[in-house]
C-alpha cells in the first residue's frame, strides 16, 4: 500500500508531505483547488511522461517521492530482482523533473530507467481518471473487462494466436487454389504447346547455324566456282606450286657448293610450298562443303522457318525455345505437385480451424459463467451507493462460427436496470450522469479486486453525485 507521498516544487506546490493509513483516503476541495495536481504528481512518481511545465515557476527542478509497503511475496519484488534492484519490505519510488525537460528515476535511491519505474508503478497502483467512463461507451472494451475479471486474458491471447494461425492457413489455401486454378486453366494449352515444341526439338544456337548454312547453299554455285579457280592456281602444270617445286629442286642440287648462301633460300621455298599445300587442302574442304543435295536447301529453310514461326507464336526469340520447354515442363510438374500440396493445405486449414473453434467455444463457456459472477458481485456493490433497486447485467451474444474473430465468438455488452420493471439497456444510455459514476465505481472496485495493485487512485469519482448519495 501507499504510505507516504512527498512533493517538492511541482506546479503550484512548494512542499507537501502526505501520510496515508490503511483503507480509504479522500481528498476534497473546490474546483481548481489543485486536487488533480496531486494526481499528476503521483503519476510522475509512477513513471508517467515527464514535462518541464510541471516544475514550479522559479525552481530548477521538482521531485516526487512515493513510499510503498507491498505485501510479502508481491510480484513487484520479482520484477525488481529480475532487473537487479534491491528491495525487501519498503519501496521508495522517486522522480526528478528538471526545468530543462530532463528527467531522472530512482527506486530505493538506485538510478533506474523510466521504463522500469513505469512497470513497477503499474504493479503497485491503478489510477482511474476523470474520463475513464468514455471507455465504457466502446462496447469492444466490455469483453476485455469481462476477461480481466474472469482471469481469461491469457486464454484470450492464446485464442487470438489460434485465430491468426487459422487465418494464415486459410490465406495459404486460397493462394494455392488460385495458383492451381490458373495453371489448370492453361493446362491444355501447355500440353499442346509442349507436344509441338518437343516434336520440333529446338537446339541451342540452331537458328544461327541454319541461317549460315542456308546462306551458303543459296550461293553455293558461285562460291564453288571461285574455289575451283583458286585450286587451279594452286595445283597442276604451270602453277606457282609446280614452278616453286622445280626451283627448289635445282637449288638443292647446288646447295653443296654454296650451302651458306642457298640453304636459307631453300628453307624459305619449303615453307612457301608447305603453305600452298595447306591452302590447297583447305580449298578442297571448302569445295566439299559446297556440295549439297537439291533437297538440303529446302529442308534447312523449312526448319528455320518452323523455328521462327514457333518463336513468334510464343512471343520469344528462337534461342529461348529450349528454355521455354523447360519452363512449361516445370509448370505442368508444379500442377501435379500443387495438387498434393493443396491436399496438405486443406488438412492444415481444417485442423487450424478446428483448434480455433474448440478454444473459442471453451472460452465462450467460461465467459458466460464469469458474466453471471460479475453481475452478482457488481450488483452487490450498488446498495451502499444508493442504487438499492438497480441491477448490473452482462449480455453475451454468441455469433455464428463464420463470424468469429481474434477475440472469439462472443459480443459482450454491459447493461443496467435502474428500477424493477424497467427494460435493461446499455449502461451509457440508461444511467443518468450520477448513476453512471456510481455504476463505474462499483465496476472498478470489483475489477480492482482481481488485480495485483494494492493501491487504487480515483480522480473525480463523485462526478454527478450529490445530496444524500454524496453523504453516503
In short:
The chain is α+β, with helices and mostly antiparallel strands and 472 residues long. It has helices at residues 35-45, 75-82, 114-124, 133-136, 140-150, 153-185, 187-200, 206-218, 220-234, 240-254, 259-289, 294-313, 321-380, 427-430, 433-449, 467-471, and strands at 2-10, 13-19, 61-68, 91-98, 103-107, 110-112, 125-128, 391-398, 410-417, 425-426, 455-458.
Question: Could you walk me through the main structural features you see in this protein, from its secondary elements to its overall organization?
Answer:
This protein has helices spanning 35-45, 75-82, 114-124, 133-136, 140-150, 153-185, 187-200, 206-218, 220-234, 240-254, 259-289, 294-313, 321-380, 427-430, 433-449, 467-471; strands spanning 2-10, 13-19, 61-68, 91-98, 103-107, 110-112, 125-128, 391-398, 410-417, 425-426, 455-458. The chain is of the alpha+beta class and 472 residues long. Among the domains are: 1-128, 3-Layer(aba) Sandwich (Rossmann fold); 190-331, no CATH class. A six-stranded antiparallel sheet has the order 2-1-3-4-5-6, with helices on one face. The protein has a three-stranded antiparallel sheet with strand order 8-9-10. It has a two-stranded parallel ribbon with strand order 7-11. A hairpin with a 7-residue loop joins β9 and β10. It is elongated.
Amino acid at each position: 500500500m501507499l504510505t507516504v507521498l512527498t512533493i517538492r516544487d511541482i506546479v503550484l506546490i512548494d512542499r507537501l508531505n502526505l501520510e496515508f493509513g490503511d483503507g480509504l483516503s479522500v481528498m476534497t476541495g473546490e474546483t481548481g483547488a489543485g486536487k488533480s495536481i496531486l494526481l499528476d504528481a503521483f503519476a510522475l512518481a509512477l513513471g508517467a511522461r515527464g514535462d518541464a511545465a510541471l516544475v514550479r515557476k522559479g525552481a530548477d527542478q521538482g521531485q516526487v517521492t512515493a513510499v510503498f509497503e507491498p505485501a510479502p511475496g508481491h510480484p513487484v519484488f520479482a520484477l525488481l530482482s529480475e532487473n537487479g534492484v534491491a528491495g525487501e519490505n519498503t519501496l521508495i519510488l522517486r522522480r526528478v523533473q528538471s526545468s530543462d525537460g530532463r528527467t531522472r528515476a530512482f527506486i530505493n535511491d538506485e538510478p533506474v530507467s523510466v521504463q522500469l519505474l513505469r512497470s513497477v508503478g503499474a504493479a503497485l497502483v491503478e489510477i482511474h481518471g476523470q474520463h475513464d467512463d468514455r471507455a465504457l461507451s466502446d462496447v469492444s472494451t466490455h469483453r476485455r473487462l469481462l476477461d480481466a475479471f474472469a482471469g481469461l486474458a491469457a486464454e484470450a491471447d492464446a485464442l487470438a494466436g489460434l485465430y491468426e494461425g487459422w487465418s494464415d492457413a486459410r490465406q495459404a489455401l486460397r493462394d494455392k487454389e488460385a495458383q492451381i486454378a490458373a495453371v489448370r486453366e492453361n493446362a491444355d494449352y501447355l500440353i499442346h504447346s509442349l507436344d509441338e515444341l518437343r516434336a520440333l526439338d529446338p537446339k541451342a544456337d540452331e537458328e544461327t547455324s541454319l541461317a549460315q548454312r542456308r546462306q551458303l547453299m543459296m550461293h553455293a554455285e558461285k562460291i564453288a566456282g571461285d574455289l575451283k579457280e583458286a585450286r587451279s592456281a594452286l595445283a597442276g602444270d604451270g602453277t606457282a606450286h609446280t614452278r616453286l617445286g622445280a626451283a627448289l629442286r635445282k637449288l638443292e642440287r647446288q646447295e653443296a657448293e654454296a650451302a651458306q648462301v642457298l640453304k636459307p633460300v631453300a628453307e624459305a621455298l619449303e615453307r612457301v610450298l608447305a603453305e600452298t599445300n595447306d591452302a590447297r587442302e583447305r580449298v578442297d574442304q571448302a569445295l566439299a562443303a559446297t556440295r549439297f543435295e537439291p533437297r538440303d536447301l529446302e529442308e534447312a529453310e523449312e526448319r528455320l522457318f518452323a523455328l521462327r514461326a514457333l518463336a513468334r507464336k510464343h512471343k520469344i526469340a528462337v534461342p529461348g525455345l529450349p528454355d521455354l520447354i523447360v519452363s512449361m515442363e516445370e509448370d505442368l510438374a508444379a500442377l501435379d505437385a500443387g495438387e498434393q500440396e493443396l491436399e496438405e493445405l486443406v488438412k492444415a486449414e481444417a485442423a487450424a480451424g478446428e483448434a480455433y473453434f474448440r478454444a473459442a467455444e471453451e472460452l465462450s463457456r467460461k465467459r458466460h459463467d464469469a458474466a453471471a459472477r460479475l453481475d452478482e458481485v457488481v450488483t452487490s456493490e450498488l446498495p451502499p451507493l444508493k442504487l438499492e433497486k438497480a441491477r448490473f447485467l452482462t449480455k453475451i451474444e454468441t455469433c455464428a462460427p463464420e463470424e468469429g474473430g481474434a477475440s472469439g465468438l462472443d459480443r459482450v455488452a454491459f447493461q443496467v436496470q435502474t428500477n424493477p420493471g424497467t427494460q435493461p439497456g446499455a449502461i451509457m444510455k440508461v444511467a443518468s450522469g450520477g448513476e453512471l459514476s456510481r455504476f463505474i465505481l462499483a465496476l472498478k472496485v470489483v475489477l480492482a479486486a482481481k488485480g495485483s495493485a494494492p493501491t487504487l487512485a480515483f480522480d473525480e469519482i463523485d462526478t454527478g453525485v450529490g445530496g444524500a448519495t454524496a453523504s453516503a
